Amino acid sequence: MTDLPAIIAYQGVPGAYSHLSCRTAYPELEPFACSTFSDAMFMVERGEARLAMIPLENSTAGRVEEIYRLMPQSKLHIVGEHFEPVNHCLLGLPNSELSTLKSVSSHPQALAQCLQHTTDLGLNAIASLDTAGAAEQLSQSGDITQAAIASSLAAELYGLKILRENFQDKTGNTTRFLILSRDSHMPVLEPGVRYMTSLMFTVRNIPAALYKALGGFATNGVNMLKLESYMASDTMQVSSFHLDIEGHPHEKAMQYALQELDFFAKEVRILGTYPWHPFRLQRDQIIEE
């Protein structure tokens, strides 16, 4: 993989939270902005980028539906995950102040997450295609009555002033990203390391197929962390599933559970095995306390 360009692709414009995630997780790689998720993923498939940083779900907004449709069409492998806290900043031009503002623009989800603070300041909310795009437009406007809600990276890139940090109404908003590679990478099973295995499958057309397919994880003591269903065809008759399980395929319990899954399901595809992100470990410690 090291012979590929030292580039990590993401969807969005410079300053987007995906861009920030690339810089945080892989500071040694050059972030490359793409118009769509598929463009970012195809860059990796073509060998034009080493990795892609793709958002899968957000703790407030839920899952990114498009990714579940794209993954079955892709041959990419998941080699890691990244959790990025969303810190919305209220941005203005260098000579603007809170008292000069009349309107604020951002992505509709960001506006919704900052609604109370926006209302308290008496600002008119204007929807934009994305957060960083709103910041870029603001930098070109020259209008001190306008503001944008975006990341601190967007403020840095577009020469804007952070009027307020943590502008979101509630704390804890976090986005989970998948790190995708053209080459598979099965990590060595090491004692004391917690692993995640992600896979996709389609159930057979038999009674209680999903119950039977997942039963092997319960009987072998394998913890399922996430199960998402999606329609894999245009007929809307076949349900496919994305499954995250705690474990490594080289563990005996996992091997037995996967054998049972193979018997009751079809088109089983392991997307990748990777260590838990530190965010998961910190969250588990807080829950246990």
Concise overview:
Helices cover 31% and strands 33% of the residues.
Please state the structural category: alpha/beta
Number of helices: 10
Largest sheet: 6 strands, mixed
Radius of gyration: 21 Å
Based on DSSP secondary structure assignment, what is the total number of beta strands?
Answer: 15
Please report the distance between the alpha carbons of the first and last residues.
Answer: 40 Å
Poorly predicted parts: 285-289
How much strand content do the residues show?
25-35%
Q: What is the typical, i.e. mean, pLDDT?
A: 92
So what's the overall shape? elongated
Helix content: 25-40%
Q: Spell the H/E element sequence.
A: EHEHEEHEEEHHEHEHEEEHEEHEH
Report on this structure.
The protein has 289 residues and is α/β, with parallel strands linked by helices. It contains 10 helices and 15 strands. Strands 1, 2, 3, 4, 5 and 11 form a 6-stranded mixed beta sheet that branches. Strands 8-7-9-6-10 form a 5-stranded mixed beta sheet. A 4-stranded antiparallel beta sheet has the order 13-14-12-15. α8 packs antiparallel against α9 (252-264). The longest helix has 13 residues, at 252-264. The radius of gyration is 21 Å and the shape is elongated. 39% of the residues are buried.
